Amino acid sequence: MDATFWATVALVIFLGIMIYVKVPGMITKSLDDRADRIRDELEQARRLREEAQELLAEYQRKRKEAEKEADDIVTAAKHEAELLVGEAKQKTEEYVARRTALAEQKISQAEREAVNEVRANAVDIAVAAARKLLADRVDGSVADSLFKSSVQDLKTKLN
């Protein structure tokens, strides 16, 4: 018998042992298990992808909301700044008006004081001139009679 015959017999015996030990069932079961694992992994990957898309959509929505909120804050800040500038201008104008009015009051008061001082000086000068004239022109007896008449006039005006 030649070597091919014995090789064929050995192959048939080997295949028989394999079938007896249920190697094809094990291989099939192993392949089915692997296919199930791959199917589960694909399903899990699909779920993860859907979750990632949901998260992406949520983050994009949050980003848009944050951008809108930031725009609102910037708009509010600009509006508030405009109000503050307007208020500052108004306060400055009021301050300048008050300071101008105060300066005008001080000027008019200084004018009144100057006029009063000039009048007082004029009265003092007139009194001094009248005294000198009277002293030069009136003698002692006339001065006494003028003094007495002035005292009498004063008494009648006071009573």
Automatic annotation (TrEMBL):
Description of how the protein assembles with itself and partners: F-type ATPases have 2 components, F(1) - the catalytic core - and F(0) - the membrane proton channel. F(1) has five subunits: alpha(3), beta(3), gamma(1), delta(1), epsilon(1). F(0) has three main subunits: a(1), b(2) and c(10-14). The alpha and beta chains form an alternating ring which encloses part of the gamma chain. F(1) is attached to F(0) by a central stalk formed by the gamma and epsilon chains, while a peripheral stalk is formed by the delta and b chains.
GO molecular function: proton-transporting ATP synthase activity, rotational mechanism; proton-transporting ATPase activity, rotational mechanism
UniProt key word Protein biosynthesis: no
Residue ranges crossing the lipid bilayer per the database entry: 6-23
Location of this chain's protein in the cell: Cell inner membrane; Cell membrane
InterPro entries from the UniProt entry: ATP_synth_b/b'su_bac/chlpt, ATP_synthase_B_chain
Entry's family note: Belongs to the ATPase B chain family.
Membrane topology of the entry: Single-pass membrane protein
Main location: membrane
GO cellular component: plasma membrane; proton-transporting ATP synthase complex
Database matches in Pfam families: ATP-synt_B
Source organism: Aquibium oceanicum
Coiled coil location: 28-76
Name the record gives this protein: ATP synthase subunit b
Keywords assigned: ATP synthesis, Cell membrane, CF(0), Coiled coil, Hydrogen ion transport, Ion transport, Membrane, Transmembrane, Transmembrane helix, Transport
Alphabetized HAMAP family for the sequence: ATP_synth_b_bprime
Function: F(1)F(0) ATP synthase produces ATP from ADP in the presence of a proton or sodium gradient. F-type ATPases consist of two structural domains, F(1) containing the extramembraneous catalytic core and F(0) containing the membrane proton channel, linked together by a central stalk and a peripheral stalk. During catalysis, ATP synthesis in the catalytic domain of F(1) is coupled via a rotary mechanism of the central stalk subunits to proton translocation. Component of the F(0) channel, it forms part of the peripheral stalk, linking F(1) to F(0). The b'-subunit is a diverged and duplicated form of b found in plants and photosynthetic bacteria.
